[in-house]
Design a protein that fits this description.
The protein is mostly beta strands and 124 residues long. The chain is built from no helices and eleven strands.
């Protein structure tokens, strides 16, 4: 059974930083595309960032480019999302997902496995 455990969310002031972690059991991130979605209150879920093994060009949604960095530690089997200069509009529940198909041009992100979500709240 595949389980993804997301952690690292919290309450932070605007301009602050958080690092989200996604640990997997029953699944190895190496060799697959994985990443993060978020869903703000009253809004649709959006793909935030995705990466695959040895990925030199990870995907970032426009609103987080230059502020968020996705990375993976294959030895620990963890995918991270470093979020800097957080803004109130970054508030939402962040979900990690694995074994994804990404069509960035049409913003299509299809993932087979999902974590439970971690809340990120950015105060102004």
């Amino acid at each position: 059974e595949v389980q993804l455990q997301a952690s690292g969310g919290g309450l932070v002031q605007a301009g602050g930083s958080l690092r989200l972690s996604c640990a997997a059991s029953g699944f190895t991130f190496d060799g697959y595309t994985s990443g993060w979605f978020r869903q703000a209150p009253g809004k649709e879920r959006e793909g935030v960032s995705f990466t695959s093994s040895n990925d030199d060009d990870p995907y970032y949604t426009d609103s987080v480019k230059g502020r968020f960095t996705i990375s993976s530690d294959n030895a620990k089997n963890i995918v991270y999302l470093q979020m800097n200069n957080l803004k109130p509009e970054d508030t939402g529940v962040y979900y990690c997902a694995a074994d994804c198909t990404v069509a960035a041009g049409i913003r299509l992100f299809l993932c087979d496995y999902w974590g439970q979500g971690t809340q990120v709240t950015v105060s102004s």
